[in-house]
Write a structure and sequence with these properties.
single chain, 471 residues, TIM Barrel, 17 strands, 33% helix, globular, binds N-(aminocarbonyl)-beta-alanine, binds zinc ion
Length: 471
């Protein structure tokens, strides 16, 4: 099966050109001007459109059991929504398993959860919910045999790690060439504030934000930066950054040559804490919470100046009706997380590229190229090199539309972005050369997505990409 995408503007992190893209057997076969259409099964006219590497969302939670509830997007509906939004690869964060379970146990659970369901390619981040010799010893085989080269641990929630365990985990992850991803929020500070609020009967959605102000997050980021250094300069990835103070700590660390990588999410770029004052404020409960409006601008500066490396979604869907039923007016009983996997590419394109805050090349770097390099998917994903997977999204920059949940493909009953005006639409998505979404319609099928055996974390590849990384 041969496809030819004609006359589009092909954009990579390194530049753009008007060119054709030839696809054969799911791979990029050639990129150049005036490629012949002889023997081509299908020609896609991309005149006036941008042809970009498919999006890579490295932070989703499909079908996750968070103890009090299970997120309602599974690997079918979640990847279907991803495909319709121009995302062709997801790396999902495994949830916690039974107390004391092994790393491989959760991997097996997740393989079963995704197999036969995913419509685009996928992988998982390991989850470290406790640390002992057996867990440390499993890490090497998770990387080399299972292709899992990043692991997340939490500093709050039920299975949080203490400093001693975080140090041991990061030291071993470094030696097995894996990336340590951390949910940074200081648990003691959150508990301290939450107890005071609850005792005073303050349990509204806005009290959720008051219970974990940005200092809780920034403190944990600073702490992890220093612990990663003390663990032997373990590479560190900060997930879902929401504020400028935390960003400043990562800038300082990078200035000192520390390998610290930073992810933010559309909700922290576009939504502020005033949403908690809405009648339906429960729709916005997530952790870290939405921040004061001044923080949004600081993150946009970080996107533009290169201090932030990836934009992912943290897609974790709990319907509004479920939130209301469970919370009963008390934020502490509401499951945390927002949907958004289908909106990421379009929102960042519209608010970032079309409003002149970031270049198209930077858009590609944030949404695809750096995620690929950080998470062991390069050179298979994230660019248009010959031999790479033909994961492609075609954007029409002239389309204007309004986000409506009824047009989305997840299992939520709302969108946090409802009513937002967008310019620039992902009109066609190809996964390994097959059209999986077109004009807002899903055209793929369950089980077409393949598990990606990821490469170990490649320090040298990242050093070539970013100057702050030490040799
Ligand atoms: O509130 C959130 N973000 N829920 C998903 C789990 C996590 O912390 O990433
Ligand atoms: Zn988290
Ligand atoms: Zn998350």
């Amino acid at each position: 099966m041969k496809r030819l995408i004609k006359n589009g503007t092909v954009v990579e992190a390194t530049g753009r050109r008007v060119a054709d893209v030839l696809i054969e057997d799911g791979k990029i076969c050639a990129v150049g001007q005036g490629l012949s259409a002889d023997g081509i099964t299908e020609v896609i006219d991309a005149t006036g459109r941008y042809v970009l590497p498919g999006g890579i969302d490295v932070h989703t939670h499909f079908n996750i059991d968070v103890g009090i509830a299970r997120s309602c997007d599974d690997f079918f509906s979640g990847t279907r929504a991803a495909a319709c939004g121009g995302t062709t690869t997801i790396v999902d964060h495994m949830g916690f398993g039974p107390a004391g379970c092994s790393l491989h146990h959760q991997l097996e659970v997740y393989h079963q959860s995704a197999a036969g369901k995913a419509v685009v390619d996928y992988s998982f981040h390991g989850v470290i919910q406790h640390v002992d010799e057996a867990i440390l010893d499993e890490m090497a085989s998770m990387v080399t045999e299972q292709g899992i080269s990043s692991f997340k641990f939490y500093l709050t929630y039920g299975h949080k790690l203490n400093d001693a365990d975080a140090l041991r985990a990061m030291a071993r992850l470094r030696t097995v060439s894996a990336l340590a991803a951390v949910h940074p929020e200081n648990d003691a500070a959150i508990v301290f504030r939450r107890e005071q609020l609850v005792a005073a009967g303050q349990t509204t959605p806005m009290d959720h934000a008051r219970s974990r102000p940005l200092e809780c997050e920034a403190e944990a980021i600073a702490s992890m930066i220093n612990l990663a250094h003390l663990a032997g300069d373990a590479p560190l990835y900060i997930v879902h950054l929401s504020n400028g103070l935390g960003l400043d700590y990562t800038r300082l660390a990078r200035g000192a040559g520390r390998a610290v990588w930073v992810e933010t999410c559309p909700q922290y770029l576009l939504l502020d804490e005033l949403n908690y004052l809405r009648e339906d404020g429960l729709k916005f409960i997530l952790s870290p919470p939405l921040r004061p409006h001044t923080e949004l601008d600081k993150l946009w500066v970080g996107l533009a100046d290169g201090s932030i490396d990836t934009v992912a979604t943290d897609h974790c869907t709990f319907p509004y009706h479920q939130r209301q039923e469970m919370a009963q007016g008390d934020f502490t009983r509401c499951p945390n997380g927002l949907p958004g996997v289908e909106n990421r590419m379009a929102l960042l394109f519209s608010e970032g590229v079309m409003k002149g805050r970031i270049t198209l090349e930077r858009f590609v770097e944030l949404t695809s190229t750096l995620p690929a390099k950080l998470f062991g998917l390069w050179p298979r994903k994230g660019h248009f090199g010959v031999g790479a997977d033909a994961d492609i999204v075609i954007f029409d920059p002239s389309r204007r539309y309004t986000v409506r949940h009824c047009d989305l493909h997840d299992n939520a009953d709302y969108s946090p972005y409802e009513g937002m005006q967008c310019q620039g639409m992902p009109v066609t998505t190809l996964s390994r050369g097959e059209i999986v979404a077109h004009e807002g319609q899903f055209t793929g099928h369950a089980g077409a997505g393949k598990f990606l055996h990821r490469q170990p974390f490649d320090h040298e590849l990242l050093r070539q990409h970013r100057s702050f990384v030490p040799a």
